[in-house]
Amino acid sequence: MDVLAVKNLCKKYESFELRNVSFGLREGTVTGFIGRNGAGKTTTLKSLLNFVHPDGGEIRFFGQEFVGHELAVKQRIGFVSGGIDYYPMKKLKAITDVTKRFYPQWDGGAYRRYMKLFGLDERKTPKQLSEGMKVKYSLALALSHHAELLLFDEPTSGLDPVSRDELLDIFLSLVRDEGITLLFSTHITTDLEKCADNILYIKNGEILADMALDDFLAGYKVARFAGDVPRDDRLIGIKRERSGCTALVRAGDLPAEGAELSDAGLEEVMVHMEKE
Ligand SMILES: Nc1ncnc2c1ncn2[C@@H]1O[C@H](COP(=O)(O)OP(=O)(O)OP(=O)(O)O)[C@@H](O)[C@H]1O
């Protein structure tokens, strides 16, 4: 059974549409949610928990429909989208005291460990925190109630490299040791190379790929051309480089004539695919 099953999720804004987004998350896996700015990642994540009201679709958490079981489902989930932006003048301790009442499984020991690891002082207010520290505080709250599913929107983007690496280590140990399931969006492809099992790739509001990261990457090669690029419909997203050109080719379409072929990294695949 999927921990999260999403079917035909739709949301229409004036100039953007999320179209029939469907995917599932298997227990104990890390899925990286990728796509360009404005592709629909935040809209999708917020729609899952009704922070944005979807126009249609079916969302099941832990086999249960979200509608009608919101409280029970939310208690089993850790959700972070940006840093804390409410109660700017309240001390973190007061915010934590309010938050923990919502979670029967609240773990004070884990909370204190995360606060210490993230270097956060409970006597401060959100207004006195940097943007990265606000995200860390949101993460500390989300990680301290034994959530079974973590949904994080760009959790690493404002963090310094050391904190980012520490957070990815936390993600890995939560997933490998405790069987937690994690979906997080990111623009930092090395985050995914470090810890993602699967990728969910969204483009213009539609899911382009939902598969194991290794299989996704194995599906492509980068073709390098020293001179002119031959006319070939199989070449994806031709890009001019300092010397020559590159394009993506599907592994099944090999070989591209006159090209030097190499393995494709996630960033290369995205850059070429987004040129189409
Ligand atoms: N409340 C809203 N009203 C109208 N349009 C919106 C609203 N929220 C988001 N959008 C539009 O929906 C599209 C998708 O936005 P979304 O924030 O989901 O993208 P994203 O993939 O998370 O981008 P980023 O990587 O920049 O965070 C954008 O074109 C955005 O302008």
Automatic annotation (TrEMBL):
Gene3D superfamilies: P-loop containing nucleotide triphosphate hydrolases
Source species taxonomy: Bacteria, Bacillati, Bacillota, Clostridia, Christensenellales
CDD domains (UniProt xref): ABC_DR_subfamily_A
GO molecular function, one term: ATP binding
Limits of the ABC transporter domain: 1-229
Pfam name, any one: ABC_tran
SMART domains: AAA (SM00382)
Keywords from the named record: ATP-binding, Nucleotide-binding, Transport
Name by which UniProt lists this protein: ABC transporter, ATP-binding protein
